[in-house]
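Regression test case RT-17, inverse folding.

Input:
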């Protein structure tokens, strides 16, 4: 699907979609449980992949008209899947359920789409092997398709922390239902650390305890997944909140209100402070869970995305509108997402007349040297690239057409509906 965005101002109220990160973890945690009810869950292409994996491990996932998930789990003992686990485009699904597969008494096969089959899984495969399982890439390159044979039995493992925090999450979630638990030592500094904090917060809500150690994390074995009252509610998603927030900051003369923005462990809540630093008018009522934002003159800033990789596309677009330079640093790991988001944003913003300087672990956007002009751009099969480019289209001179716009279904299925609700003129074809 192509979507064409016309220059538009935005005004009104939009509700944050549920968190994709929390939903993935909640669905899998409910799978590890006997049963659980998940309310306010994001039902998107990625989270449906995790739900299918839970079913292949012996669980059952039912969604009612209100969007509530009723999940019968496999109670800590996943069955050997009767079919290949297709994770489609979801890296979170693949990493989290690879560790689940290592608990099964037999062999599981996991694969995904072309993009997912290019993403690194090697450190997690090595960790499973160190824990007594068998795990290999069919092509011998640390990438899917993966073949995993369990059950694991070891109790300690070391992994790098600077490739993906999802390796830690996967092992913590699986380790809680092993006999002896797992202690994880980090060989390098942990990147995207807030995502592990999300995991710890969610596990606590499901009755599972995690300990921080001098060099990593540990989880005792023999624990049961059992949320209080059998229910868990997913909070709003700050990665997705970044888009209407940025839209208000660059085109919200009449002001935009975002609902469902309650505080949580999400590192991407940093976008509120970043937009404020750049000069937009921002007011976050944490108790009410609302953010009010309106446009003002923006100034470039320097931002580290070491812990917030998903924010890079949004920040890059803000930088294209701001005066001066916006320098996004600590970004090497952002190259290993659905696409290389550093290069993708540099290339696609360049088509719109934005000057950038790309380095190995940074992207600098030269706002003062840029004149946003409408053009045809490519979403690169990446939901976050699509949404960030749509923001640029709000203030570009002329029409901006984004190819592959359907990929917003991965995390924010109602994104273009939300833009239209804020007054954006767009055409879908």
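Golden output:
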């Amino acid at each position: 699907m192509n979507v064409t965005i016309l220059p538009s101002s935005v005004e009104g109220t939009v509700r944050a979609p549920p968190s994709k990160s929390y939903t993935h973890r909640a669905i899998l945690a409910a799978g590890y449980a006997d049963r659980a009810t998940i309310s306010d869950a994001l039902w998107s292409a990625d989270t449906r992949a995790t739900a299918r994996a839970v079913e292949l491990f012996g669980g059952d996932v039912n969604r009612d008209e209100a969007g509530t998930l009723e999940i019968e789990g496999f109670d800590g003992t996943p069955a050997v899947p009767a079919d290949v686990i297709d994770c489609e485009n979801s890296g979170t699904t693949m990493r989290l359920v690879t560790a689940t597969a290592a608990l099964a008494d037999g062999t599981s096969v996991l694969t995904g789409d072309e993009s997912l089959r290019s993403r690194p899984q090697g450190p997690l495969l090595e960790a499973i092997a160190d824990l007594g399982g068998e795990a290999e890439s069919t092509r011998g390159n640390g990438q899917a398709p993966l073949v995993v044979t369990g059950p694991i039995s070891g109790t300690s493992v070391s992994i790098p922390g600077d490739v993906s925090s999802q390796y830690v999450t996967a092992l913590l979630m699986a380790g809680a239902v092993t006999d002896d638990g797992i202690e994880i030592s980090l060989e390098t500094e942990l990147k995207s650390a807030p995502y592990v904090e999300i995991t710890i917060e969610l596990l606590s809500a499901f009755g599972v305890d995690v300990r921080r150690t001098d060099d990593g994390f540990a989880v005792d074995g023999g624990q049961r997944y059992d949320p209080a009252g059998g229910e868990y509610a997913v909070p709003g998603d700050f990665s997705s909140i970044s888009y209407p927030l940025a839209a208000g900051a660059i085109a919200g003369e009449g002001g935009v209100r975002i609902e469902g923005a309650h505080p949580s462990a999400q590192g991407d809540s940093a976008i509120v402070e970043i937009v404020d630093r750049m000069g937009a008018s921002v007011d976050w009522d944490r108790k009410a869970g609302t953010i009010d934002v309106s446009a003002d003159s923006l100034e470039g800033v320097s931002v580290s995305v070491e812990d917030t990789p998903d924010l890079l596309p949004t920040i890059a677009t803000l930088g294209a509108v701001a005066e001066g330079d916006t320098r996004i640093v600590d970004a090497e790991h952002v190259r290993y997402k659905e696409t290389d988001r550093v290069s993708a944003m540099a290339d696609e913003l360049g088509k719109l007349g934005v000057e950038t300087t790309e380095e190995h672990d940074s992207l600098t956007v030269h706002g003062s040297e840029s004149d946003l002009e409408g053009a045809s751009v490519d979403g690169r099969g990446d939901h976050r690239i699509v949404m960030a480019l749509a923001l640029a289209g709000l203030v570009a001179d002329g029409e901006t057409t984004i190819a592959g716009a359907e990929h917003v279904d991965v995390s924010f299925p109602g994104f273009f509906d939300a833009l239209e609700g804020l007054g954006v003129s767009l055409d879908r074809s």
